Structure formats: structure tokens, C-alpha cells
Amino acid sequence: MTTPGRNDPCPCGSGKKYKKCHGAATILPVDYAYDRIRRLEGECSSLLLKFASQKYGETGIEQAWQGFRFAGTVPPDREGQKGDFFSRWLTFIWRPGREETLPELFLAERGPKVEGEIRRMIEATIRSPYSFFQTEDVEPGVSITLRDVLRKREFQVSERTASRMVQRGNILYAQVVELDGIAFLMGTGSVVMPASFLDTLLRLRSSLEKAGFLTAGRRPDEDLLEREDKLRELYFSLADSAEKRKPDMRNTDGDPLEFHTLTYSVSSFSAAFQALRGLEQNVTGRDDAKLIEEGERATIHWLKSSKKGSPDATTVATLRLAGTTLIAEVNSAKRAGRIRREIAKRLGEEAVLMKTEIVPFEAAMKQAEAKAEEEKPGTESEHDRIMRESPEARAFLKELNDRHWASWPDVPLPALRGKTPRQAAKDSIGRELLESLFLDFDSRNSRLEDESQRVDVAKLRQELGLGISRVVYQHGMIKNLSSLHGLKKQVFVRDDIPREVITAIDENHLLVAGGKYGDREAGNPIEYDHLVIEHPKGRTEITFYNRGISLLFGDNETERRIHRVCAILQGLRPS
Questions:
Q1: What is the crossing angle of helices 198-210 and 228-245, to 10°?
Q2: Digit-coded pLDDT (tens) for 56-115
Q3: Please, what's the b/e burial string for 466-475 (b: 16 or more CB within 10 A of its CB; e: otherwise)?
Q4: What DSSP string runs through 85-147?
Q5: Between β-strands 130-139 and 143-148, what pairing exists: parallel, antiparallel or unpaired?
Q6: 238, 200 contact by CB (below 8 A)
């Protein structure tokens, strides 16, 4: 369906012009709130870092680093993800005097001078503990659904960068802060841990509960805040284990690979080019014409070589200059620090750093693989050819796969503490471990092109008694909410729930999508969808107002997933 012209009537039926109705919003409210919170976060961090430097100096910050990592005389590494994790901890968690945190000292000293919104952000952050979170759902570039393993809570976290890197089942050590109805990540450990680490965290939770913590009548947030150092120590231990499992990829300087993109605003193309061209010309002797492309565009490589003109020169950074925008690309945290200092030396205040993007090596490889998959030519592998041309081969492999998963519920598994999935499904800890396995299966399924080799997670759930027990659905057009009683309900119970409905709910991750969607005021009459799903973990309720209009004007992946399931349920209604 095409988007209406600005002066056309709005399709919602309000009678207003599109530009005065649904076409008026150019920024989604959630996006605006997220940007505002990230701006506040930046201002708070800057103020607190400045306060820490003035009050405790470089020696104090080095001592904080040693306390952060629990030992040694390793100097603080301020670059990269590890440096970012330390900076967030320093500014919001560090206790210089072992009593009050740095932000509490800041608020006590600056008092009324602190702006209201800054104060609210700081207070919300210091009340929020670090914990271990398992990723239950991901909407890349938008949000992550996280389950706090220790507090047994779920959070729908607005997050643009991390949501492009993590997968379902991954475990994060993080601080989730809630402000003005938005949950967001404030500090995050630099290592993403695999789903197999969940058992260690469940054992930790059990030990805390046996000691009387995290139980009814207590304040779990305060329990975790009091044990922040113990949780951080466990995180570093688990992170070290996770790091040892990965290949150690390094650049020619011996630094761990990590891709940094720094974006600057410069006063003029000419001044920036004149200041930076020597980074390449001093080694290669290339003239300006070979560095400048069409218009105000140039690519400069910062080269380091012991001998002028040597073909063995190392590229420290690639600089791309387009008009008044300068982008520097490097492949390690250490080189990111070097290029920042070099640009500051050559351009001074004429270059303003606007943003820094950091992509770990593993995430970059996944992005490259996905891009290659999209752009690969129409050729196919020998395996794919055989599978396409031989129905017998497809049937044989599917039979093997089905046979394996038919016996799986009764096979003892180390990941389930030696129990079979059927045994594990009978107690709460076993069910959590099973859910973690299912998240991992879902993640693998998303990377498998051959559908016959995917795991039917919905079928396994049903087999183990962990599946959906009841589905209730209503859909129709209503004048107002008082007329809901006139809508008929579709009710499906246990074995009567259609297979395609169970599969659609599972594949579209609706069990973690409870809530209200759409805009009740967008249309008259109101298109109304109400879906209730009962399952072992509880009850998921979804209400969707004016689904058609929301899908036309919005770009919300969760709403699209809900729509897919609603469309299937609508198709099952008796005519």
C-alpha cells in the first residue's frame, strides 16, 4: 500500500489531512525518549568523570582500576569496550571512601547546583544493581528482552547497538536502569557469555536464597547492590573462561582485533586535508591528486614504516574525508587512542568528535557473513545441489534428524546436570536450564538454511509438557471498549490447539511480547485484537488497537510478529 500524500485525507478516517494527523510525527515518541536518555547519560558521565579527576586525580583513578579488576598493577586501559565498562563502573558504582559512591559524593557536594534531570538520572542509576541477564528476544537496532537470572524479572530494554550483536540465549553482565518508562543499558561487561553458563548462575542464585537473600520480604535490588563486588568478581572469572574458548585474533601490533569507527565534524575540507595528508605522503610520497577523489572527498591512510617508500608499511588507520565530515577507521582499541591523539595534535579544536562505534571481532565476522550471504552469486554448493535434486537424500536426512529429536527427551545431558529433558521438566531449575537450551536451539535455527535440519522447538516443548495449554483470541471492529462483549472468542485448549498456531507463536516469540500495542485513537471504529496465551511460565496477554493502521504507518518488528499470528488465527475462524 502506498503512503498518502501530505494533503490527502488520512486513512485512519479522522477526516483530517494526512500531514495534520498520522503524517505529522516524524520521530517516534520512544525514539525521542531514548535519544533524550542517552543525552542525559552522556552529560552525567562527563560531569562525574570530571569530578573524579578533579577530586582524586590520576593516582586515584589508577587505584580505582586496581579495585575494579581486584589485583595487580595493570594500568587502566581506557579504550575499547573494557575501558567503557570501567568508565561506567567508575562514574556510578565506585566507592572512593568505601562508604558512599562517587555520584553520591557528587550530589552531596554540588547539591542544588545539579540540574533536575541530571539528578534524576544519577539517582535512578545508583539504585539499579548490576546483574546477569539472559537474552530472550532481540529486535536488531531497536530493543532486547532480557531476563534477570538472579531477580527473576524481565526487562524490555531499548538498545540500538548491542541489539545488533547479541543473540537469543546469550548472557550479559549489565546494569539495567529504568527512567520515565524506558529501560536501558547503562553499563555492560565487555564479554558476552554463552547460554551454557546459566547453570553456574542458577547455583549462585540458589546459594543466595539459602542464605536468606533475594527472597520474599527482602529488597532484591539492595541485596545485589551490597554484593556488587562479588558479582563483578564472578563475571570476570566467567568472562576469562569465555575468552579462552574464542580464537585469539590480533592485528600486526599484537593488539586484540576490535573495529572502531570515529566520526568527526571538521571546520573545512581543505584545512583538514592539508593537516592530515602527511600521514600517508610522508611514507609513500604520493601527491595530492592521488589522494583526492571527485569533489571534496579524499581517502588518507596513516602509514608507519621504518623506510620511506617501503612496500611493507603498516596501515594504522584509514581516514575518509567528505566535505566537513571525517571518519577514521582502525582495528584495535589502542590504535583508536593513537588516531584520536594524532587528530587532536594536527587539527586541535577544528575537529570535534561526534560519535564512536565499536564492533568486536566476532560481531564483525557475523555481519560480514550475513552480508556475504545476501550478496553471494547464484551458484550453489555440491551439498545444496544434491539436496535440491534428490528428494531421497532430503527424506533420509530428515528421517535421521526426526529420529534424533524423538529420542532426545529421554537422553541424560550434562547441560541439565545429568538429567534427561523429561526429568528436568519436572522441577523449576531444570525448566530454566531447558529454556536456556531452547533459546540456543532457536538461535542456531536462524542460521540454518536447510529447514529439515532445524530443531522443532515447539514440538519439544509440547512433548515435555512445557508447551502452550490454552489460546484465546478475539478480533473485530468496535465503536468503543464498552462494546467488547459483542466480540466472539476463539478458544483452543491443549491438544486442540492447531499445530500452525503453536509454531507461529513459537517462531515469532510471542510469549515475551505481552502488552498493549497500537493507538486506540487512530481509527473509528476501532480495530481490536486481544490474544491470551497460557503456558508453563505464566500468562501472556496482548492487546492490539488498530492493527492495520499501525502496520501501515509504523515500523515495529514486534507488531509485525504479532500480526503474523493474528492473521493465522483469523484464518481459522468459521465462516
A1: 160
A2: 998 888 888 888 876 554 544 555 567 788 888 999 999 987 789 999 999 999 878 888
A3: bbbbebbbbb
A4: HHHHHHHHT--TTSSS-HHHHHHHHHGGGS-HHHHHHHHHHHTSPEEEEEEEEEETTTEEEEE
A5: antiparallel
A6: yes
